[in-house]
Amino acid sequence: MRDMAAGPRVLLKRLRELMAEPLEPQERLDRIVRDIAANMVAEVCSLYVLRADSVLELYATVGLNPNAVHLAQLRLGQGLVGTIAASARALNLSNAQEHPAFAYLPETGEEIYHSFLGVPVLRAGRTLGVLVVQNKTMRHYRDDEIEALETTAMVIAEMIASGDIGRLSRPGLELDMSRPASFTGLSFNEGVGLGHVVLHEPRIVVTNLFNEDSEEELRRLEVSLGSLRLSIDDMLERRDVAFEGEHREVLEAYRMFANDRGWVRRLEEAIRNGLTAEAAVEKVQSDMRARMLHMTDPYLRERMSDFDDLANRLLRQLMGRGPETIAESLPKDAIIVARSMGAAELLDYPRDRLRGLVLEDGAPTSHVVIVARAMGIPVAGQMKGAVSMSENGDPIIVDGVEGTVHLRPQPDLEAAYAEKVRFRARRQELYRELRKKPSETKDGVKVDLLMNAGLAVDLPQLAEAGAAGIGLFRTELQFMVASTFPRAEAQEKLYRDVLDTARGRPVTFRTIDIGGDKVLPYFKGSVQEEENPALGWRAIRLTLDRPGLLRTQIRALLKAAGGRELKVMLPMVTELGEIAQAREIIDREVRHLARFAHHLPTSLKLGAMIEVPSLLWQLDELMQAVDFVSVGSNDLFQFVMAADRGNTQLADRFDTLSVPFLRVLKQIADAGIRNHTPVTLCGELAGKPISAMALLGLGYRSISMSPASIGPVKAMLTELPLGELKSFLDDNLSGPAASLPMRALLQAFADDRSIPL
């Protein structure tokens, strides 16, 4: 019985020899198509390469007119070759001329050939060209012949990616690998960055394609698959998921793929046809990605990223690689491109080399975005497909204002963005000059512009931004970026550094807000999986149930603030009894430290965050129970509107400047004035000039935001006639809902008075 795999193995062996020979690119291609034709007993073998202008150009042939090389061309979607390139699917026809997509190119002389087999040249699911064999006789090509041609196409894809074949391009015509690509998603942090791609999980380049021993490669595959399955099971059991920024369902999808017999069978077939285990993974991954890209079912297309990640994990297992050393060979203008990443991973990159962050997933309130905002780098998210289209070192622009990304941009676009960056730099210079001016409205009302922080990396920006103090110090970020619980001494040192840097300016420390979706990787077994984590066991609810956590933190804060004022704020308060319980723990720690003659704070002020709507019906009682309150507008908005802030489908559905929500915010500000209790707002609303303007009109005189937002907000503030705005808002909020959306009315108010927004 004929060994069906012998043909592919012989061909791969011949290709390996060809790749090792010192040949010019055109000669290498010519010999490859000759060897394929001889091996498959085909009268024609042709290679078409996709150019950046979406034209497929004939790069090599045996059997067709040799003068047609670099002259014959088809548009993407035109003819059989164009159809294969557009669909990323093979075509196997016994009579090609009967196919409705057949297009005759007279310069090639192919009219006498009937049977046709064409496969896409794929790399990471991207179509780079088409490889074709033809015969005069009418026949269907066998599965092993299709497999051989697909495997050969994979080798050619690496040649194209390496830039070797690109040397054959005519002047002014570039290959598709260098084609510009743009992506539109969401703005997660404003700013513009120009630089070069650094893939957070670098694509593994398989250099050893051909195997010497199929049985040994099958054994390697089996061992690595076993290790991969165990690691996935371990991750699911440990629930590291939230910290890594992955969701449990993603790991469940990984487990499904890792145990899928169809996937494993395709890997085994590729190995038996002569590929190494890692080359087999690369080939099957690329084939499946190309097919999934062209599926119309959105759920199946979403699973594409899961499959890619799984295949990359398997490649790392096979090649014995751990995570790449992050700072190694990092360009000076690095823009990180990632599917998702944790907050700690971003901090591993040297800040002075970062120019931006591009995420395929994520949400504006995810922890990595909070850290990126603190670092002052632009972030664009929900950029589907950005990872697979990018190569390390590609030029890239991230526009965190518009929520767009431009990969391999044209020179004129790059020049326009360079000017945009220079313009923003000039604006930043104006903002720096504003630091010296008092933070007052045009009619002389003083407003405290505070900054949000959470890590040591934030502290230098306190002086640079000209903030009046720190209105929200997120203490949980120290816990999230650590691999174990920070010791009391480490907590105390951070808090003391914060207070020292503030130089007497007010600092409000929020007690640790973990739980729900913020599960620490080392908090194993302590948190049960919840269907609605945002509404679950988190923040003050968790720390009152685990008082050891709160006691340790309070003791560190009290010791760090010796001789100074200490402001402590409780997150996620739902009822006043929680404040009483927390105050009891704090008082106990004060008595303990006093007993041992520790240097205590000169004053201790306790505050609560208004995030849970239940507090709206006990505002007066709340204001009497605490020294100050702070509105967490992000959580309050999602709970009032019943709209998950991490759900991208709802990201733009409800407006934070809607009449109902502004009425809620005014109710809180009025209660603060009525009870002589200071009120601050520290959510995303404070950081946008238009929404900050609305807050001032509602009665807020203290708002806290990211350091980069202070300049634009102050520029608005100094031109704002607050008395006029207050009357304007009173009229529009007290009567029937306005015919125009409140955001449009506020914009018109600002435009009429030349207030910069």
Automatic annotation (TrEMBL):
PROSITE patterns: PEP_ENZYMES_2. The keyword Metal-binding applies. Its main location: cytoplasm. Signal peptide: none annotated. Pfam families: GAF (PF01590), PEP-utilisers_N (PF05524), PEP-utilizers (PF00391), PEP-utilizers_C (PF02896). Its cofactor is Mg(2+). GO terms for molecular function: phosphoenolpyruvate-protein phosphotransferase activity. It is an enzyme of class 2 (transferase). SUPFAM superfamilies: Enzyme I of the PEP:sugar phosphotransferase system HPr-binding (sub)domain, GAF domain-like, Phosphoenolpyruvate/pyruvate domain, Phosphohistidine domain. Its EC number is 2.7.3.9. Gene3D superfamilies: 3.30.450.40, Phosphoenolpyruvate-binding domains, Phosphohistidine domain, PtsI, HPr-binding domain. It catalyses: L-histidyl-[protein] + phosphoenolpyruvate = N(pros)-phospho-L-histidyl-[protein] + pyruvate. Keywords: Cytoplasm, Kinase, Magnesium, Metal-binding, Phosphotransferase system, Sugar transport, Transferase, Transport. Residues 24-170 form the GAF domain. It is found in: Cytoplasm. NCBIfam families: PTS_I_fam. Belongs to the PEP-utilizing enzyme family. This is phosphoenolpyruvate--protein phosphotransferase. It comes from Aminobacter carboxidus.
